[in-house]
What we know:
The protein has 329 residues and is α/β, with parallel strands linked by helices. It contains 11 helices and 10 strands.
Amino acid sequence: MKTLLKSIVSAAVVAAAFGAQAADFPAKDKVITIIVPFAAGGPTDRVARDLAEAMRKPLGGVSVVVDNAAGAGGSIGANKVAKANADGYTLLVHHIGMGTMPTLVRNIPFKVESDFEYLGMINDVPMTLIGRPTLPANNFKELQGWIAQNKGKINLGNAGVGSASHLCGLLFQNAVKTDMTPVPYKGTGPAMTDLIGGQIDIMCDQTTNTTSQIEAKKVKAYAVTTPKRLTTPALKDLPTLQESGLKGFEVTIWHGLYAPKGTPADVQKKLNDALKAALKDPDFIKKQEGLGAVVVADKRSDPAEHKKFVAAEIAKWSPIIKAAGVYAD
């Protein structure tokens, strides 16, 4: 009887502690850290930093900072969040990698579908097919001809195994039925630097990283990966890969917000409310649109729909990755 009573009292104390924690969240003297599992300066980093700024006000002005923990296809940073205290002060911004890591990363130390609390989707980011500025092809038709004439000599850059640019590159090679030499980098920044410098030939990357380079004419732009053309001024004249002849080619990178499993429901609700407020923030929307990204304005901003969407992405990408035989160790 005493043991039972002690257990009941202990449970009540724990419940009261969690309740108080949720009621006080976020504490003014604490910092919310958003972990980005990729290098600083890349597209996911830019999204996270814009989001951190937009979430500060709806969270009562508390400090929201970004910390980069890159490596292993995005799994190192994700694992850091999965193992963090479930108190709402350590969050994760990840992209399509949440849908590819279960297949792509060997011996992944966590379960994507059960070791996180899904807080909501952030945006959809189209991809652009771009080339070095000295590439002789000036449009996609000419690029196809150049690819046909240079089989076995083409260097296809990406931001590392498992990155958005890597996944898009895999699909592009399959679509044009041409093997290219993959050149992986430790992040989008160095990959873009070498593309501009002519060390690699082509790359498929997110508009959040390519738009400014296309505007400055530092790279050649050939097409977008969405079903319809984009309205962003710098990209509005680019054809889609589908209309250019690659039927069914569609890649859109998305970003979502996550917390460690076990984060109190009230804390999750406050974080989701802050996320939704950020998604309606005119400054955040303007920044994302300027990068070619589309802020989520549908039910995927709800946790349950976010989780359902990621499950569908896992099912979509698993056979593609297995067929390519690529893994991030």
